[in-house]
Fold this sequence. Notes:
Oligomer: single chain
Mean pLDDT: 78
Number of strands: 3
Shape: elongated
Structural class: mainly alpha
Order of helices and strands: HHHHHEEHHE
Amino acid sequence: MFAGIVINALKGKWGFVALGFLLGWAWLAGAIRLAKPDSFWARRWYGLEKMQRARERFAEAPGSTPWGATAGETDFECKTCGAHVKGYAAAAEHMESQHPERDLVDLHEVMVPSK
């Protein structure tokens, strides 16, 4: 039971945490489903493909990306080398090809929205 609460909290699924107190199986359902893309769970455990699926799944939700934009519509600037790319997938690809020493978890620290 405690593991279900922790997993849902790490996935950013606060509704499932609350619902689980009324219906215990809700914690299991929330633990199996995709995490929200800005959650600790997604940043730590998801690769590019799964993160993109999570962004598409939660695209309608306000704040589904750290910058409040849906996947693919934001221009990013790399704070390390100054390169400009369009979209989250391109930003992740830039990180992997140009800065392989950095982990994708650092993506939000290195790639910032362009103005």
